[in-house]
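Page 42, continued from yesterday. The earlier attempt failed because a stray header line got pasted into the input along with the sequence. Redoing it now with the clean sequence only.
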Amino acid sequence: MGRRHRRSFSREFKAEAVRLCKLGDRTIGKVAKDLDLTETALRVWVKQAEIDAGQGPPGALTTAEREELTKLRAQVKRLEMERDILKKATAFFAKEST
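This time it went through. C-alpha coordinates are written below.
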Protein backbone atom coordinates (compact mmCIF):
# COMPACT_ATOMS: atom_id res chain seq x y z
CA MET A 1 0.00 0.00 0.00
CA GLY A 2 1.52 3.35 -1.07
CA ARG A 3 1.67 6.53 0.93
CA ARG A 4 -1.09 9.08 0.50
CA HIS A 5 -0.36 12.70 -0.26
CA ARG A 6 -1.27 15.06 2.57
CA ARG A 7 -4.79 16.39 2.29
CA SER A 8 -6.53 19.08 4.31
CA PHE A 9 -10.13 19.02 5.42
CA SER A 10 -12.54 21.72 6.55
CA ARG A 11 -13.77 21.93 10.13
CA GLU A 12 -17.24 21.07 8.90
CA PHE A 13 -16.02 17.87 7.21
CA LYS A 14 -14.14 16.83 10.36
CA ALA A 15 -17.17 17.57 12.54
CA GLU A 16 -19.42 15.50 10.28
CA ALA A 17 -16.96 12.60 10.28
CA VAL A 18 -16.82 12.70 14.09
CA ARG A 19 -20.62 12.85 14.26
CA LEU A 20 -20.85 9.74 12.09
CA CYS A 21 -18.50 7.93 14.47
CA LYS A 22 -20.56 9.01 17.49
CA LEU A 23 -23.80 7.63 16.04
CA GLY A 24 -22.57 4.18 16.98
CA ASP A 25 -23.94 2.27 14.02
CA ARG A 26 -20.48 1.98 12.40
CA THR A 27 -16.98 1.55 13.73
CA ILE A 28 -14.36 4.26 13.30
CA GLY A 29 -12.61 1.99 10.81
CA LYS A 30 -15.78 1.64 8.71
CA VAL A 31 -16.47 5.40 8.75
CA ALA A 32 -12.86 6.07 7.78
CA LYS A 33 -13.09 3.63 4.88
CA ASP A 34 -16.42 5.08 3.72
CA LEU A 35 -14.97 8.62 3.74
CA ASP A 36 -11.62 7.56 2.25
CA LEU A 37 -9.69 8.60 5.36
CA THR A 38 -7.01 6.92 7.38
CA GLU A 39 -8.33 5.38 10.55
CA THR A 40 -5.56 7.07 12.50
CA ALA A 41 -6.55 10.55 11.32
CA LEU A 42 -10.19 9.95 12.17
CA ARG A 43 -9.27 8.68 15.64
CA VAL A 44 -7.27 11.88 16.23
CA TRP A 45 -10.29 13.96 15.17
CA VAL A 46 -12.60 12.03 17.51
CA LYS A 47 -10.16 12.39 20.41
CA GLN A 48 -9.78 16.14 19.77
CA ALA A 49 -13.57 16.55 19.59
CA GLU A 50 -13.86 14.88 23.00
CA ILE A 51 -11.22 17.25 24.42
CA ASP A 52 -13.02 20.26 22.91
CA ALA A 53 -16.26 19.04 24.52
CA GLY A 54 -14.55 18.96 27.93
CA GLN A 55 -14.39 15.17 28.10
CA GLY A 56 -10.64 14.79 27.58
CA PRO A 57 -7.89 14.13 30.08
CA PRO A 58 -6.91 16.95 32.45
CA GLY A 59 -4.44 19.37 30.89
CA ALA A 60 -5.27 18.44 27.29
CA LEU A 61 -5.38 21.48 25.00
CA THR A 62 -8.57 22.35 23.18
CA THR A 63 -8.44 23.34 19.52
CA ALA A 64 -8.82 27.02 20.46
CA GLU A 65 -5.96 26.74 22.94
CA ARG A 66 -3.76 25.02 20.35
CA GLU A 67 -4.46 27.81 17.85
CA GLU A 68 -3.67 30.46 20.46
CA LEU A 69 -0.46 28.66 21.40
CA THR A 70 0.62 28.54 17.75
CA LYS A 71 -0.04 32.28 17.34
CA LEU A 72 1.79 33.12 20.55
CA ARG A 73 4.82 31.04 19.54
CA ALA A 74 4.97 32.87 16.21
CA GLN A 75 4.69 36.21 18.01
CA VAL A 76 7.49 35.27 20.43
CA LYS A 77 9.71 34.24 17.52
CA ARG A 78 9.07 37.56 15.75
CA LEU A 79 9.71 39.57 18.93
CA GLU A 80 12.95 37.68 19.59
CA MET A 81 14.13 38.47 16.06
CA GLU A 82 13.27 42.16 16.55
CA ARG A 83 15.12 42.18 19.90
CA ASP A 84 18.20 40.62 18.29
CA ILE A 85 18.16 43.23 15.51
CA LEU A 86 17.91 46.02 18.08
CA LYS A 87 20.80 44.54 20.09
CA LYS A 88 22.98 44.45 16.99
CA ALA A 89 21.98 47.99 16.03
CA THR A 90 22.75 49.24 19.53
CA ALA A 91 26.16 47.58 19.49
CA PHE A 92 26.86 48.98 16.02
CA PHE A 93 25.94 52.56 16.95
CA ALA A 94 27.80 52.33 20.26
CA LYS A 95 30.93 51.31 18.37
CA GLU A 96 30.41 54.14 15.86
CA SER A 97 30.17 56.81 18.55
CA THR A 98 33.47 55.88 20.22
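Notes: The mean pLDDT is 93.
Reminder to self: strip header lines before submitting.
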